[in-house]
């Protein structure tokens, strides 16, 4: 029997507004691989939107579902996965991603994140607060952890296709 080549899945991590979903979709097209948005999968599995999950069951419940959905996705090789910004922060989820796939941190500056997040009003963590303040705090908390990803690619300001080019160069 011919030996099967196993391409590891690629997992995009980074803050809200870093471009994970858009870049992931385009990267998948370039590589002719399947793209999966983990947030969409969580919504499908729960039968409700992420804001609704946060509101009805709280963040801890959401994180648990996120971990289970990612565990299932990571059983597949060769796909491109965009994660929600908090997924890589959770030790067990992070360990799973690091063990079973290649991770890419899309690193963006605060102005870019604020500008992009202003286009979507449905992010529970940004509700009722200054997005700039919250994103600034999350950058401090999360950037040292995102830095544990296998690759770091600058994703601030630039067109998403350039970010895809950069990823193609490092993987
Ligand atoms: C979150 C990011 C969101 C979503 C949820 C929590 C976070 O995904 O998973 O609102 O903790 O940063 P995006 O990064 O795709 O916006």
Automatic annotation (TrEMBL):
Recorded GO MF terms: ATP binding; magnesium ion binding; shikimate kinase activity
Binding site for Mg(2+): 21
Binding site for ATP: 17-22, 123
Gene3D superfamilies: P-loop containing nucleotide triphosphate hydrolases
Keywords assigned by UniProt, alphabetized: Amino-acid biosynthesis, Aromatic amino acid biosynthesis, ATP-binding, Cytoplasm, Kinase, Magnesium, Metal-binding, Nucleotide-binding, Transferase
Cofactor section: Mg(2+)
Positions of substrate binding: 39, 63, 85, 142
Top-level lineage group: Bacteria
GO terms under cellular component: cytosol
Main localization (coarse): cytoplasm
InterPro entries: P-loop_NTPase (IPR027417), Shikimate/glucono_kinase (IPR031322), Shikimate_kinase/TSH1 (IPR000623), Shikimate_kinase_CS (IPR023000)
EC number: 2.7.1.71
Compartment(s) of residence: Cytoplasm
PROSITE patterns: SHIKIMATE_KINASE
Reaction(s) catalysed by this chain's protein: shikimate + ATP = 3-phosphoshikimate + ADP + H(+)
UniProt similarity note: Belongs to the shikimate kinase family.
Matching PANTHER family: SHIKIMATE KINASE (PTHR21087), SHIKIMATE KINASE 1, CHLOROPLASTIC (PTHR21087:SF16)
Assembly behavior: Monomer.
Role, per record: Catalyzes the specific phosphorylation of the 3-hydroxyl group of shikimic acid using ATP as a cosubstrate.
Name of the protein described by the UniProt record: Shikimate kinase
Protein's organism: Minwuia thermotolerans
Highest classification ranks of the organism: Bacteria, Pseudomonadati, Pseudomonadota, Alphaproteobacteria, Minwuiales
